[in-house]
Each structure stands twice: as C-alpha cells, then as structure tokens.
TrEMBL record:
It comes from the Bacteria. InterPro entries: PilO, PilP. This is Pilus assembly protein PilP. It comes from Pseudomonas aegrilactucae. It holds the Pfam family PilO. The lineage of its organism: Bacteria, Pseudomonadati, Pseudomonadota, Gammaproteobacteria, Pseudomonadales.
Amino acid sequence: MNQALSWGAIAAWSWPRKLLLLVGGGVLLLGLGQGAHLRAGDAALARAQARGAELQVTWQQQADQAARLAGEQARLLQLQRRLREAQAPLLPEGGLPGLLQDIAATGRGLVFEQVNVLAAQARAEYAEVPIQVRVVGDFSQLSGFVDALLGLPRRATLHDLQVSPLDGREQLRLQLQLNAYASGVPVEAPVQAEGALMASRNPFSASTPAPAASVLEGLPVDQLELVGHLADPRGAVALIRAAGALYPVRVGDRLGPDQGRVVRVEAQQLELAERVWVEGGGWVVRSRVIGVNAQRSFN
C-alpha cells in the first residue's frame, strides 16, 4: 500500500520534479556501471602488468643465456683451433697413401725392397700406425733417407734401425720401423670461402704432380712390383714400386700400356684386366695378376 502510495505521490509530482528524478536515477545507474567497468579494467591492467613483469624476467633470463652461449661458442671455437693446431703434425684420415708417397720421395735413388703397413694400434686419443721399410743404397743415400724421414711434415718416429752389408756389393741394406700417428679425435675444419682459397693460391707455384695412375700407364707391367697393401676409408690400396718410387693404386686405376685396369686389390696380389690384340681373334680382355715379390701370372 505504501509503495502504491509512493508511486502515486511521484505520479502527482510536477514535470520538473519528475525530470530531475529521472536524471538523478540515470546518473546513479551510469555511476554504478562505470564503477563496475573501472574495477574490471583495473583487474585486467593488473594482470597485464604482472604478465609484462613475467615476460621481462623471461626475456632477461634468455638474454643472459644467449650471452653465456655466445661466450661458450667463442671458447669452443678457440679450443677447436688449438686442437687443429695440435693435430696438424698428425696423419689425417685417409692420409696414409700420401705419407707413403712422401716416404718414397725422400728415398729417391734407393731400392725399396719392402714397405709393410702393420695393423694400427689404437690409443686413447690417437692411433699408432707402424710401417716396416727395407731399402738398399750406399751409406750417404741411407743417411740422407733417415734425415729426410725425421723431417717429414707428418709426425713420425723411427725404431729398430738395422744396417747390414750386401754380399759382393758396395751397398747397404737398411731396415727400420716408422711409426706414424693419426688423430683419433675428429674436429671440423674451419669454413673458408672459395674466393679466399682462390686468392691464397700462388699462380707461379709448381703444378700438381701427375697422379700415380697416369705415371704407371706408361710403364710395362713387368717393371711394376707389388710391395705392400693397406686400407683407408675409401677402400683397399696396393703399393706399387716402379723405378724406385712407391705409388698407391686402387680399383679402377689404369696400369701398363695395354689399357690395364685394376679390378681387384688383395693383400698378396693385384689383378688387372688388360685389353690386348690377338691375331685372328681381335681385341680380347686378358686377366693378369701381379703378386708380392714380382710374381706374375696370366689367365
């Protein structure tokens, strides 16, 4: 009843009073709505500020981690450089044929009777590769040969040197064991731009020597002798002695004037496939085997 009377009393008000009441009610509702909106905005702002502070901490942690990583990478590059410098005198992977060629080059004028590569002995951080060498020459040649071996760019040590005279000849036989050392710790080589490599080449330097296969193609097979056998990551390698020098030969290399191609390399023999002319039969393929100690056979 009181509520009805109140509304009745309000209805009896004059229009200015009614308008004032309406405006006051609108202002009150607007204030309540604005207050609720501001409280929601303040809460969202607080959450955004907290998230921003969290992201700032995360960013700072990642920045510190990146700085530490950059320092670690710099130290790693420095250690790799020092490791490469330490490994420089060691035998690189697959570098045994090159070492044997260096040995042959230092012994020019000598007669190589034996070059025998023994099984590598693994150590903690390197591998020891024993190579037995037996050569014949006069005293001055042998002395120069030993000095040259000690001066090889790849680190090697000499052991068990034995010198004996040859019956009825003014020459001596030298037998020794050369231990080469190969690195057992792989390390990535520094990347170098192709342009820098081109710029580092000396245009007036001597040209690269002809490969072993091209040299041996011009020699009769009877003058080639199998004196050793080894293996590297690329496969089996036969050591051929010709004119006092050693040459590494692989399957697919050409030997001799009859278009001979190496088809098999084993520890005790090397097999060639030669193309020869047979009267009345034309061109035929002939198998030829070169064994250790100059043993040869035809099939």
